[in-house]
Each structure stands twice: as C-alpha cells, then as structure tokens.
Amino acid sequence: MTLSSSNGKQVRIPELDGLRGFAILLVVAIHYFHDPDPKLPRVLHYLQPFFALGWTGVDLFFILSGFLIGGILLEARTSPNYFKTFYVRRFFRIIPIYYLWIVCFIVVVLVGDQVFPSHTQLGQAPRINWGVLAHFLFLQNLSTSNDSTLAVWWLGVTWSLAVEEQFYLVTPLLVRFLSRRRLIAFLSCAVFAAPCCRILVRALAPMSAATIYRVTPYRADTLALGVLAAIFWRDPEFREWLCRNKSLLYSTFGVLLAGMAAMGIWFWSPSGRITQTVGYTWIALFYLSLLFIVLADTGGVTNGNLEDVAWSRDGGTLMAGGLAEGEWNSEWRKFLRPFDAKGRRRGPDIRSPRIP
Q: Does the reported pTM lie above 0.85?
C-alpha cells in the first residue's frame, strides 16, 4: 500500500500490506482452527482459545479501509473530477468480479435444482429470492436469513463488502462538503454514537445479534476511526507529536492489548453483550493503535514482522489482502507479475498492491 507524501509522491509502506495480510490470516484462523473437526489432531483443540478473536480481522480491515479510502478522498477533495474518479475506480475494482460471483451462484442453483436436495441437511434446495438478489445492491448485510447451506457458504462472507460499499456512498460526500473541523466533529460523533446505538438496541429492541454485527451504522465507529486516523496523520504537527511520544503510544497499545486478551478469554463471541456494546469500539481502538505504531515507528519490531508478512514467500497474504478490499481484477495481475512463465520469481523488486 502507498501513501502520498508532502511533496505529492507516492510512498510505499509495505507494513500496511502486512497489516492487511495479518487481518486475512485472523479470519482464516477462526474459520479453520477455532472449531476444528474432531478428527483433526488433538493439539488443535487445545489451541482453540488462541483463535477465538480471529473474527476481529474484519475490524482491522475496516480500520484500514477508513484510513486508506479516507486518505484518498482527502487528497482529492478539491479535484473537479472528485466523484467521477473515485466511483469509476471503485466500480471497476469491485463490481465485475463480484457480480460474476453472484451470477455463478444463480447458474449453479438453476442447473443443479434437482441435485441439491439430496446433498443438504434439511433436504431443501437453494432458491433465488430477495436474499440473493439483494447482493446486487449490496444490501445483504441488512438480512441474516439464508435458505440453504450453499447460500451461506457462497455468499455469506460478502456482508463486510456491503458495509464497505455503503461506506463508499456516504464518506465522499462528507469529505467533499464538510470543513476539516466539521468533518472531525461528525466522525467523532459517529464513534460515540455507534456504541450508544448498540447499547440501546441490545436493551430495548428485539434485534438479532447477527444484525448488530453486520449493519453499517452499528459498525460506524470502526470506519470513522480509520478516517480520523487519515485526517490526523496528514497533520505534520500530529505526526511529530506521535513520533516523539512513542512510549505513550506503546503504553496505550499495551492497555488495549490487555483488554483484547480478556475478551479472548471471557468475551470472545462477537454476539456477546459486552462485546457488542463496548467491545467493538475497544477492538477498533486496539487496531487503530496498531496502525499508528506501524506508521510512526518505522524501525520497530512490529514493522519488521509485518513487512515479512507483506513479502511472504508464496505471495498468499499479498493476494489475500487485495481480495479483501475487493480489488480482484488489478490485484490478481499484480500478484502474477513477479513470476516468469515457469513460475519462478523474477527478482526482489516486487511491488505491493497499490491504492490509487
């Protein structure tokens, strides 16, 4: 990933690629190792608690998305082609392969209508209904019902992409038309309002925990913190202050890490009362502090490890990071580019995925 420097040049920060790779590894870990099959080695069952918070990798994605997309918008806020450039780029990075994925599901359902009932636990074939069609409008996070196991496997993970797209609709307007002070005030209110809304909903409204987990307004604190990070990181005085006070930054990170450890032991479920009320915001602050450490302490231990993740030998986390942002088309080409026709690595000058 790259950021623009004060002279307008793009500065590559491989550690941000590492953060994105770390986020995808967290998600993979909880899906594959938190509840392992009984037939797998016993050691995996003992290691389950270490993977309990793997679902928070999505929150790290949201922080990174707020930071990177917010930064792009801030740098182009006075451009005469501000909206056109942003939305055209987002469209071609996301829509083609995403729509193809949905269409493939529809084709599979229509072709295999007579096959699926005998291969599902409830004997119910997948159906093409509103729940499926809502994916074309990125509204799948507003509903938690799925008619078949196949629909869950095929489309269930796209709820976070719906949150991202809804974020893309609102944020460009805020950045374009609000002054810096009002934008900071609005985003700060969003950070405060999101946990308040979750508390009220948990206490007063009969809403499922899955809905609170997926609906954008209830997750707005994480995205808003990412945009706030982009605003303040572009302030030279703030950057200097942060670099001078690394000990305070690491102390804050340590406190938040202790809270994460407690959550992993006692409140690991994303649908728990404590987790859904104040826990989501705590997680967002934790990953925000990690982001600032990566940005401010370029020679630190954390940065070295994250750069190793970004430059992983097999390129897996590099590709996964691009997929997580929905940048399938361009990132797939960039993933293949470092290899020659025989699959050998061309050389050490491998560029990471770039956000334009």
A: no
